[in-house]
Amino acid sequence: MDGPLVDKDQYPRADIDLVAVRTSRQQLIRNTNDMRKIMCKIETALFQLHQSARSQNANLTATVQSPVQPPTRPPFLRVHGVLPGSPAATSGLKDDDQICQLGSLHKDNFTGLGDVAEVVRLSVNKAVALKLLRDGTPKTIALKPCSWSGRGGAGGAMLWNC
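Above: the chain's sequence. Below: its structure in token form.
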């Protein structure tokens, strides 16, 4: 498609259909330009989607204050030792809370404490919904992992298998 249309003496080549090649080249250029316009629209739409998601994450704390739905999944972790001043303490997590769901992590897809660390690492500076049982009462809180003076992104030790 991008080879020369003339021979070494600058005459049109006799072995190709010049009209068909030029028409194909023009169609290719039009399609490329159309694709660029569409990609630009997609990029703009994705940017707006992520902007709205960021603003919704900022409002997650307000959303969590609404009536609490009971957790639909059984607990799979027990909180043991929330460090004072940690993101876990700031969000309201307490000792002996039973965690039913942390973001997308729940009993059915939980394989080990490394999964919790991964969710916390991916949620740094973003609120993540945490469904739990506290004294048998279902609660949902917003945990916002971040850097702080202590160890880890959340600041709470968890025990596997409630």
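The helical segments are 18-58, 60-64, 87-91, 113-122.
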